[in-house]
Design brief:
The protein is of the alpha/beta class. The chain is about 45% helix and about 25% strand. The chain is built from twelve helices and eleven strands. The strands form two sheets. A six-stranded mixed β-sheet has the order 8-7-6-9-11-10, sandwiched between helices. The radius of gyration is 18 Å and the shape is globular.
Length: about 300
C-alpha cells in the first residue's frame, strides 16, 4: 500500500487540507478538511496580511499539522496563493507559519496555480472534454485556463477575488464594473493570442468555493457532499435566479433562508455569482460544469 501524503491550499478565504494515497495517478481520499480563515480580510497594499487574519490562519494550519502527526503523514506540499503572493509581509508570514506550526509554505505564481488546478480538476472529471476553459474563483484572484484535452494552451490570473471585490468595491454596481473591465482585457488578450476561437464548442468548468456553493444552493444541499456536486451542470438561468434571491437579503438572512450556503460565504457569494455570470456572458456560455476537484488535488498529484 502506498504511503499517505498530504496537500494544503492556503487561500485568501479558505485553508484546506487533503490527505490521501496515490494509486496509478488516482487519488484515494482519506481525509479532507477546511477552515474559512479570511486570510485576505483587512488586506492592504501598505501593510499586507493583517494580524487578526494571520492569527486565524496560524490556528488553522496548526490544526492541520496535528492531523498530519496523528495520521503519521510525513510527506506534504503546502502552497499559498493570492493573498500571500501579493502581501508585502509575505516572507514574515511564511516564517511565522514555519516557526509556530512546523509547516513550510510555498508561495506559487498565478500561472502555476492554473496548471495545478487543471491537473486536479481533470483527475475528478467523469469525461475529459477535448476543449475546455476552466475558471477558479478565489478570494484574491481568479485563474482562467484554456486547455486542449490535458494540455494548457492559455492561462491567466486576474485580480478578481471575492474577498477583494466585496471589501474593496462593496456595491453590486461597483463590483460588476470592476469585473467587466478585467474580463474585457482578458477577452482581448485571448483574441490577440488566437485563443478565443478555440472556445467554440468548449466546456466551461468552474471550480472552488463559488462554483461548488452555487451547485449546492441549486439543489438545496443542506449537508455538503462533494459526490453530489462534482461533475454537475448548472445553467446560466439558474445562477441568475440564485443571484436575484441573494441580492435583496442581508448576509445573515442569506444564511437563514438559502439552503446550501456555507457560513463564512454569506457576504462573499454575491461577488462570486456576479463574476460567474459575467464570465459566462463575456465568453459566450449558457451552462457550466462544476468541479469539486481543483488546486488541492493538483498539488497532491504533483508530489
Amino acid at each position: 500500500m502506498n504511503p499517505l501524503i498530504s496537500s494544503m491550499d492556503i487561500g485568501t478565504n479558505t485553508a484546506r487540507l487533503l490527505i490521501g494515497r496515490l494509486s496509478s495517478g488516482i487519488i484515494e481520499r482519506t481525509h479532507i478538511s477546511r477552515s474559512i480563515t479570511r486570510l485576505g480580510g483587512g488586506f492592504s497594499r501598505e501593510s499586507g496580511i493583517s494580524r487578526e487574519a494571520a492569527d486565524r490562519t496560524v490556528e488553522a494550519i496548526a490544526g492541520f499539522a496535528t492531523t498530519l502527526d496523528n495520521l503519521g503523514v510525513k510527506t506534504y506540499r503546502a502552497v499559498a496563493t493570492s493573498a500571500v503572493r501579493d502581501a508585502v509581509n509575505s516572507d514574515q508570514f511564511c516564517s511565522e507559519i514555519l516557526a509556530k506550526t512546523g509547516i513550510k509554505l510555498e508561495v506559487i505564481s498565478g500561472d502555476e496555480e492554473g496548471v495545478l488546478t487543471l491537473s486536479g480538476v481533470i483527475s475528478g472529471l467523469d469525461i475529459v472534454p477535448s476543449r475546455s476553459i476552466l475558471f477558479d474563483v478565489g478570494g484574491g484572484s481568479t485563474e482562467y485556463t484554456v486547455a486542449q484535452g490535458e494540455s494548457i494552451i492559455f492561462t491567466k490570473s486576474l485580480p478578481l477575488g471575492v474577498v477583494r471585490l466585496t471589501e474593496g468595491k462593496g456595491s453590486v454596481d461597483r463590483m460588476e464594473e470592476k469585473i467587466k473591465r478585467e474580463l474585457l482585457q482578458l477577452k482581448e488578450e485571448m483574441r490577440n493570442q488566437g485563443v478565443l476561437t478555440s472556445l467554440e464548442g468548449a466546456t466551461l468548468i468552474g471550480t472552488a468555493g463559488t462554483a461548488t456553493t452555487l451547485a449546492a444552493i441549486s439543489i438545496a444541499l443542506k449537508d455538503y457532499d462533494y459526490t453530489k456536486v462534482n461533475n454537475m451542470t448548472i445553467t446560466r438561468e439558474r445562477i441568475a435566479d440564485i443571484l436575484s434571491t441573494l441580492i435583496p437579503l442581508t448576509p445573515e438572512k442569506r444564511l437563514e433562508r438559502v439552503v446550501g450556503l456555507e457560513k463564512g460565504r454569506e457576504d462573499l457569494i454575491v461577488a462570486g455569482t456576479l463574476l460567474t455570470l459575467n464570465t459566462m456572458d463575456m465568453l459566450g456560455f449558457d451552462q457550466m460544469k462544476v468541479s469539486d476537484f481543483g488546486l488541492l488535488e493538483g498539488v497532491l498529484l504533483s508530489i
